């Protein structure tokens, strides 16, 4: 007997909840904000809007389904099942934070604050939840297959991301490494920089686009479903021992960018999740390219 679908509602703590966790009470949080010329009213309103959205989406789950909730901070400890329908209730970034932990599950993005969020990944309103959940389990469910990027280290550590992967120093030091692409002869170019960014078409609406514009790059930005990645070296430093001839490029399916560490410690993290990073030490290497896995986002 097959299991009934399970709706997994993914959310994150609101600004209001973070203020209460820090200051203890509503009054203390209100005093803290007022001392800085801000009112707690808007923060509390957004909190209530988010809580109401969660209540409405939870109520829209069919009675024959199972359901559960998971907070963003617990995603790395949550076990998603193949039959799950993942409902992200929040901001676009929360979809990206969730994507790396999935393996083909359908995702529905619900925008809790239309007009404030871009709505690139949280494309739907809370009132559409019931219809979207039914559609998500249909055989012909309409989804976009969003390209993801992965980093695989030589010790088998692996990291997935929907927007981008960053490799660089954990602080404000200089990263030292050798950089090359699959098929290159030799060890690659020795570089010193503030890190390397490899991004997808989904990430082309954020950090990747910022670097692309800053460089005035002639490379075409990929679309979210394109099997293409762009990469940029940040602030490469020329010296007698380090070069700057490889600071940007494009990767298609089956192509990879290889980096060999020549520093005491570099970190690799995806989509801003620094707490869930790979750590690499001197002599280790990592390959970056298009992941076999994609994110199935309901249209």
Automatic annotation (TrEMBL):
GO biological process: NAD+ metabolic process
GO molecular function, one term: NAD+ kinase activity
InterPro entries linked: ATP-NAD_kinase_N (IPR017438), ATP-NAD_kinase_PpnK-typ_C (IPR017437), NAD/diacylglycerol_kinase_sf (IPR016064)
PANTHER family with a match to the protein in the record: NAD KINASE 2, MITOCHONDRIAL, PTHR13158
Protein name as it appears in the record: Inorganic polyphosphate kinase
Species whose genome carries this gene: Streptomyces violaceoruber
């Amino acid at each position: 007997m097959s299991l009934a679908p399970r709706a997994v509602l993914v959310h994150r703590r609101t600004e209001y909840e973070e203020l209460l966790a820090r200051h203890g009470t509503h009054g203390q949080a209100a005093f803290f904000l007022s001392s800085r010329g801000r009112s707690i009213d808007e923060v509390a309103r957004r909190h209530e809007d988010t809580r109401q959205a969660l209540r409405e989406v939870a109520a829209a789950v069919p009675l024959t389904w199972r359901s559960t909730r998971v907070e963003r901070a617990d995603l790395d400890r949550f076990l998603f099942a193949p039959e799950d329908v993942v409902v992200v209730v929040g901001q676009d970034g929360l979809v990206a934070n969730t994507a790396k932990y999935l393996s083909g599950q359908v995702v529905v993005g619900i925008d809790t604050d239309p007009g404030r969020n871009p709505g690139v990944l949280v494309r739907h309103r809370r009132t559409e939840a019931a219809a979207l959940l039914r559609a998500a389990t249909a055989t012909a469910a309409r989804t976009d297959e969003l390209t993801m990027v992965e980093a695989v280290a030589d010790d088998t550590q692996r990291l997935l991301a929907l927007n981008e992967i960053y490799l660089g120093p954990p602080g404000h030091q200089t990263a030292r490494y050798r950089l090359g692409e699959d098929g290159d002869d030799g060890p690659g170019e020795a570089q010193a920089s503030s890190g390397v960014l490899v991004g997808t078409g989904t990430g082309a609406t954020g950090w990747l686009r910022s670097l692309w514009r800053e460089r005035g790059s002639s490379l075409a930005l990929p679309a979210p479903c394109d099997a293409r990645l762009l990469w940029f070296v940040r602030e490469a430093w020329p010296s007698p021992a380090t070069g700057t001839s490889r600071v940007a490029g494009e990767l298609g399916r089956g192509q990879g960018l290889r980096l060999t560490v020549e520093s005491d410690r570099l970190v690799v993290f995806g989509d801003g999740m620094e707490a869930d990073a790979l750590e690499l030490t001197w002599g280790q290497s990592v390959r970056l390219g298009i992941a076999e896995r994609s994110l199935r986002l309901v249209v």
